[in-house]
Amino acid sequence: MTEQLEISSLQLPNNLTDSDAADFLEAGLLLDQIRLETWGNRDRISDPETRLVSWRQNDYSRLEVFLGKLGGKIVALSWISLPLHDNLHTGFMSVCVAAEHRKRGYGQLMLETVEKYAAAQGRSVLMSSTEHPADFDPATIAVLEPKSGTGAIPQFDAGVRFSLRHGYQLEQVERFSELRLPIEGAHLEELLRAAEAKAGTDYRLEFWQDRCPERLAESFAVANSRMSTDIPSAGLAVEAETWDIKRLRDMEQRFIEAGHRIDVCAAVHVPSGQIAAYTYFDYNQKKPQLISQEDTLVIREHRGKRLGMLVKAANVRRIQEELPQLEKAITWNAAENDHMLAINIELGFAPAGYDGEWQKDLRKGPANEQLDSD
Ligand SMILES: CC(C)(COP(=O)(O)OP(=O)(O)OC[C@H]1O[C@@H](n2cnc3c(N)ncnc32)[C@H](O)[C@@H]1OP(=O)(O)O)[C@@H](O)C(=O)NCCC(=O)NCCS
Question: Do 281 and 147 reside in the same domain of the chain?
Fold first, then answer.
């Protein structure tokens, strides 16, 4: 007989060293274990300090974590992140069960807990991700294609089966890519020179770390809003995010508190003084050989001038000079995002995996046409 799972809400400690931090730390170990199992490395694993900062409520999002315990030990977990400023109809959730406790219905219980909570909070659309290393051959195993039509993930993965069974639809596949660093100097200079030549003299590059200079802050907030609308989102029910300087400063402060270093490179349109393109790296000293390539955006009116390559290549050159110990950069792109992928491939990024992006409308029943493809 399956043992009764005790489900409770996680209370976040103020500090990692507080006496009530045990559940938080144990929950983190379960999440780490799942990622280690999937990827065989710690690249996508957060350290506890970062996790504590990112799990704390702020003006823009709130996280609720549910613990599933057997005999006082955490064996299952679900969490949901609720946007508080925009996208109030949505929640991003995740469920996991320790490998040795799977196939006993605990995943379903944790999912029901989080879905019930989301509905009570007035959220009607839930999204989630599954993660898949690129070690499968779509020609020889059964794969599931997203509704967006590009990319594929293994159909018989436990997370895929679980998502389908519970009424989630695979909307999109994101490619997870790795770049070996350093990029060879001559190749990088060649990419930079070609991008500079195409961009012309209307743009100048600006670099900053952690905090955007005040004179560019408003323009950077606008660029951050555009990032939420301009990346391909397939059928995911995401609305535009509204950014102002307060939101920007709040995000910067949270990165600083988590011990991260953010290196931004922006192309400023000289005639207007506005940001035309930007990109940033997220670096955590606790993983000194690794850097994460985050947002890259060229504002629509400035596209077609190689500004995407210009800011990215210039930022790579800068971090290679400042952080010579780096060995690898990682990044994510929608599988259908041809323009961004083309730039990344020229820089040397290669696929390391695929993330499935799932969505369920809680107002609809569990019917799922993708399940019929079993
Ligand atoms: C996906 C995941 C959460 C499922 O956890 P779980 O506890 O095994 O989930 P359940 O037991 O509710 O259901 C899993 C399967 O076990 C079956 N099952 C449930 N109770 C069972 C029982 N008593 N005996 C045998 N099988 C059982 C379910 O029918 C389901 O079958 P299916 O895979 O053929 O669809 C788990 O595999 C996991 O943590 N994976 C890594 C993280 C992940 O991918 N999460 C999903 C993203 S939200």
Answer: no
**Quick one: 322 and 271 in the same domain?**
yes
* Closest approach atom of ligand 1 to CA 97: 39
Q: Whose CA is nearest to atom 43 of ligand 1?
A: 159
How far is Cα 148 from Cα 154, in angstroms, rounded to an integer? 16
Domain count, the chain: 2
Residue 98 domain boundaries: 6-175+355-373
Q: Are residues 155 and 223 in the same domain?
A: no
Do 318 and 260 fall into the same domain? yes
Residue of 338, 271, 268 whose CA lies nearest to 310: 268
Distance from the CA of 160 to the center of ligand 1, in angstroms?
Answer: 10
Question: Per-10-residue mean pLDDT for the chain, 374 residues long?
Answer: 89 96 98 98 96 96 98 98 97 98 98 98 98 94 94 97 97 97 97 97 98 98 93 90 96 95 98 97 97 96 96 98 98 92 96 97 78 60
Ligand 1 pocket residues where CB is under 6 Å: 2, 34, 94-97, 102-108, 128, 130, 158-159, 161-162, 165
Cis-peptide into 13, omega within 30 deg: no
- Tokens, residue 104: 């006993």
